[in-house]
Amino acid sequence: MNKNSIYGLTIEQLTSWLGKHGYKPYRASQVWNYLYRERVTTFSEMVDIKADCIELLTENFTIQTLREHVKQEASDGTVKFLFKLNDGNLIETVLMRHKYGLSVCVTTQVGCNIGCSFCASGLLTKTRDLSSGEIVEQIMNVQHHLDTAGEGEKVSHIVVMGIGEPFDNFQNMIDFLKIMIDQKGLAIGSRHITVSTSGIVNKMYEFADVNIPVNLALSLHAPNNELRTKIMKINRAFPVEQLMDAINYYIEKTNRRITIEYILLKDVNDHVEEAVELAALFQDKKKKTYINLIPYNPVDEHSQYQRSDQESVLAFYDTLKKNGINCKIRQEHGTDIDAACGQLRSKQIKKDKDQSIKS
Ligand code: SAH
Ligand code: SF4
């Protein structure tokens, strides 16, 4: 039997599952405490829990489905992990150090079907969704890595910006968020979590309705349909007007600010005209939007795109500012390792294949 990861259960689900097997809710709280506070890595370390309960858990769940396959550390302290899943698939997770804390970028799918023309993750189409447990385990593995270093550091921020489209794996992503913000677990501040979507409009409405108070980021990357469709084919299904309606709904429903991500691609979407158009798009929502200008991480297979030069980036930024738009140029991390999302994974898959051909 292929056992599920115990990390995939929310506290309610764990309580109800143990309840069905005759255990009182405090047992679930104890298990939860061992997982997220004591952070044990085997069931047998849950020493205060009776043997029959440990046996039941061991029979039905696993506690470690991810195996560390590759770990790269950059000079700025960024650590990139490549994990092997039970079925042999590889996923990527990144730990970044900021002045405000430690943030982890998690993967939600093996590959991505959205296929944006600039992205390394889209090079390999989706094999499958990750379970909620596999998403939670990425955070736990990074936290265990920090625990082992012994300096008492804790993951404080999460960005759901690794491989995959989180809104194409909606329920597992929601369960993951619930587990992360649980006060008796890791208790990561919901304002410290950001979920990024390429703009699956119907799911943006659903996300607003679920109303878990985490931040939402939308990968817009172009201010009009013609340009956006060229770089993101998903725009055919969910064009800019529909995105703007969904943004309005989200703001109205949650009263939260939304982040707009905009990768700057040299001579493609980085002209002052596009900055003017972008500013116009958000003129009536200045207080509720924040634009993140992202330097492009070149991907070997997408050689048609280059990073914008510094002059164009600054001119773009100044134009937005002049129009009263909140924006910033995103700081980069781990530039001396394969930093762009999905890059390490696609390179490693090639390397592993080459090795298996040789041997
Ligand atoms: N699928 C979701 C989340 C994962 S991608 C989404 O698209 O939003 C997270 C962010 O990284 C997105 O804004 C995406 O456009 C950006 N991104 C992808 N490839 C990149 C690259 N090579 N350089 C810089 N940003 C990239
Ligand atoms: Fe998928 Fe996001 Fe990459 Fe587009 S940018 S291919 S949606 S991971």
Present as ligands are: S-adenosyl-L-homocysteine, iron/sulfur cluster
Query: Count of helical segments?
Result: 11
> What string, H for helix and E for strand, traces the elements in order?
EHHHEEEEEEEHEHEHEHHEHEHEH
Helical content band: 25-40%
Query: Average pLDDT, to the nearest integer?
Result: 93
Strand order of the largest sheet: 3-4-5-6-9-10-11-12-13-14
- Largest sheet at a glance? 10 strands, mixed
Could you say which overall geometry the principal axes of the C-alpha atoms support? globular
The quaternary organization reads as single chain
- The strand count comes to 14
Distance between the termini: 31 Å
Binned strand content: 15-25%
Return Rg in Å.
21 Å
Backbone structural class? alpha/beta
Unreliable stretches: none
Summarize the helices and strands and which ones pair or pack.
Layout lengths: L3 E2 L5 H10 L4 H14 L12 H10 E2 L4 E7 L5 E6 L5 E9 L2 E5 L3 E2 L17 E2 L2 H18 L5 E6 L9 H12 L11 E5 L3 H10 L4 E5 L5 H7 L8 H15 L3 E7 L7 H10 L7 E7 L14 H13 L4 E3 L13 H16 L1
Parallel strand pairs: 1-2, 6-9, 9-10, 10-11, 11-12, 12-13, 13-14
Antiparallel strand pairs: 3-4, 4-5, 5-6, 7-8
Helix pairs in contact: 1-2, 4-5, 6-8, 9-10
This protein binds S-adenosyl-L-homocysteine and iron/sulfur cluster (SF4).
